[in-house]
Amino acid sequence: MPTSAPSPADTAAPQGTIVVLGGGYDDPTLALLAGLLPRRTASIEILTAATAHDPARTHAAYARVLHKLGCPHVGHLQVDEAQPADAPATLARLRAASLVFLSGGDQERLTEQLLGTEFLAVLRRRCQHEAGFILAGTSAGASALGGQMLVAGRGWRSLLAGGIEVIPGLAILPNLLIDQHFAERARYPRLLHAVLAYPALLGLGLSEETGIIFRPGQPPEVFGDEVVVLVDGRQLTASNYTRQVAGQPVSGQGFAVSLLVKGDTFALPA
Question: Fewest CB atoms within 10 Å of the CB: 28, 73, 180, 196?
Answer without folding.
Answer: 28
